[in-house]
Amino acid sequence: MLSRVYTQKSKYEIVGQLLQGKRGSLLDIGARDRMLGGYIERTNIQYFSADVDPGHDYQINIEQHIDINDKVFNYVCALDVLEHVENIHFAFSELARITKDTLIIALPNVATLPRRWSFFWKSNLGTAKYALLPEHQRDRHRWLTIYPEINLFIEENARKANFKLDIVYEQLEWIRLFWRIFPFFARLGVFKGGLMTERCIYILTRIQ
Known about the structure:
The protein is of the alpha/beta class. It has one domain (3-206): Vaccinia Virus protein VP39 (Rossmann fold, 3-Layer(aba) Sandwich). 25% of the residues lie in helices and 28% in strands. The protein has an eight-stranded mixed beta sheet with strand order 1-7-8-6-5-2-3-4, with helices on both faces.
């Protein structure tokens, strides 16, 4: 049964805790500064970084076929990565293909109440990832990722890849200000529909 967890923890903390007591290998797609590696140092997980730029264990462009055999890594993470690629559906299938056990995907939700307010008041979503600048910005989002659509995208593509969605961690925006009165807001339904969900972290396991 699918479990949804509302949390203040960062995506790195969530993955680090998830892998406590586990063994195997992890490929961190879009690793950049390898921040995730610091959260699994005390685990029995062998960490590998991958990015489109050189300087990592693997140089990978996930919009193209990944030159790695099927089911090589026990765990594969792509944290805030898929929204940056044009061929997002193919990229997901490639990540699933090289995953032996668990695939972890994080996608931002740009339709939160704070971002809606920012668009209303400032005419932007509180991020430059969608800005039309005089010069091309390389690090930009290709997709307007909103709560119901990212959920459906993950559910359907997981099914096609023979994966099961087990847990969704909803990282809440602004919640540090209101954590003590979280139950009150929860009863009002403020957190339903992703209105305060900054990003979703999806934990998917391969169906054997």
